[in-house]
Amino acid sequence: MIKISVILFFVVSVIFSTIYTPQAILPTLKQVFNISISETNLLLSGMLFVLMISTPFYAPLSNRWSKKNIMVIATFFLFLSVVISAIASNFYMLLFSRVMQGIFVPGITALMLSYVQEIYPKTHRGFGMGIYMAATSFGAVVGRLLAGWITYIYSWKEAFAAFAILLLVALIAMIFGLPSSEKNSNSIKKKINKENIIKYLSNRYIISILTIPTVVFFSFMAVTTYVTYHLADTPFNFNTSQIGNIFLVLLVGVFVSPVAGRYSDIIGRVKVLFIGVASLIIGILLTLTQSYIFIILGIGFVTAGMFSVQSVTPTYLGDMVPHDRNTVAVLYQTFFYLGGALGTLIPTLAWDFDGYSGVAFFCIILIMIGVIPLIYVNIAKKDNKFEERNI
User: Which fold is adopted by the domain 1-189?
Assistant: First the structure.
């Protein structure tokens, strides 16, 4: 299992790194193409929005074909789309390549969670999920960090070229290093019922829980995106390498994810969710200071909050709907990436109004509004008004 775990960590890290590649170099791309902040942010928001829409379409495919085969094909086309990014001669070509990446990334991410549970024996599934979650965090760091370094030393095109090479290596590793899960999945495949999706979307308890990762990832993407413009401007005047370096703090997520998951088993899912939300708000407030050290510390708190929520919410939803975890997992990913897409787009209005301070306070207000449904669900459960059988 060690070999599989190492390959899995590498593959997942590379896939997730491609999602966040442009984030540390957005100020550079804005200058190169002479475009507005809202247009530049489309490289993130556009990709995440397409990713959100594409995610539900991949789950039914796994009912017909091997998950590994689907992921191999998706990774190949993801590789080609990143190659297009590396050779893009204008902004629209680069944006097109990012949209294509949004189509193919879910071909891996939408299936990987269940794939991991199928290739690991029952006694090691927790370990396998820990590897997966750590790799997602590590990949998010690598995507931002390497892009900043390579752009500073060479150019943004070389940065995308480097990730194309990594994707090619990941593709080869996936083909020859990861096992097929087909023999394990035939007996446990569960089709995602469209009627169930509609039922869950009309259930106030499910929507109340889905609201939390949506507003949390919205705020996380807003802060980590607009703080790059904030640090590139006076009085900080950070270059792309320095901006890339601050994202090293996202490695906090590697350690927070398993800890949050473990403590949610001990003290309860809701308490960990509230702790995550509190950490996020504290972190955002710290980024409002004029000290880059406190800004980095703030990003660390924001990261801890986001990954706490990300680690606990899918399990909480699974506890609520134990008979249909596949469907609620797809809904979770859809709402999660919806928050990310909107988080790089809508705060532009707040930025135009009051710069980074406007973005930060907008996120705090949104989080406080978004947590109200969670309080409602918690009170309902304590008053025995929550009936799981109705879900």
Answer: Growth Hormone; Chain: A; (1.20.1250)
Class of domain 193-391: mainly alpha
The dihedral formed by the CA atoms of 106, 150, 216 and 200, expressed in degrees to the nearest 10: 0
- Report the alpha-carbon distance of residue 295 to residue 282 in Å, rounded: 11
Sorted by sequence, the CB contacts under 8 Å of residue 184 that are 6+ apart come out as 118, 119
| Cα separation, 164 vs 92, whole angstroms | 19
Phi and psi at residue 192, to the nearest 5°? -85, 120
Q: What does the alpha-carbon distance between residue 34 and residue 26 come to, in Å, rounded to a whole number?
A: 12
Kindly report the pTM of this predicted structure: 0.82
Domain locations in the chain as residue ranges: 1-189, 193-391
Give 383's DSSP letter: T
pLDDT per residue rounded down to tens, the chain (391 residues): 788 889 999 999 999 999 999 988 999 999 999 999 989 999 999 999 999 899 888 877 877 788 899 999 999 999 999 999 999 999 999 999 999 999 999 899 878 877 887 888 877 766 777 788 778 888 988 999 999 999 999 999 999 999 999 999 999 999 999 998 654 444 444 556 667 778 888 888 888 889 999 999 999 999 999 999 999 998 999 998 899 898 889 888 878 877 887 778 788 888 889 999 999 999 999 999 999 999 999 999 999 999 888 878 877 887 778 777 677 777 888 898 899 989 988 999 999 999 999 999 999 999 999 998 888 777 766 655 555 545 5
Same topology, domains 1-189 and 193-391? Answer is yes
| Alpha helices in the chain, H assignment, sequence order | 2-20, 26-33, 37-40, 42-61, 67-87, 91-104, 106-119, 125-153, 156-177, 182-185, 194-201, 204-232, 240-246, 252-267, 269-286, 292-320, 325-343, 347-370, 372-382
3-state SS assignment for residue 371: coil
Pick from 98, 94, 80, 77: which is nearest to 29 by CA?
A: 94
160, 176, 220, 174: which is closest to 12 by C-alpha? 174
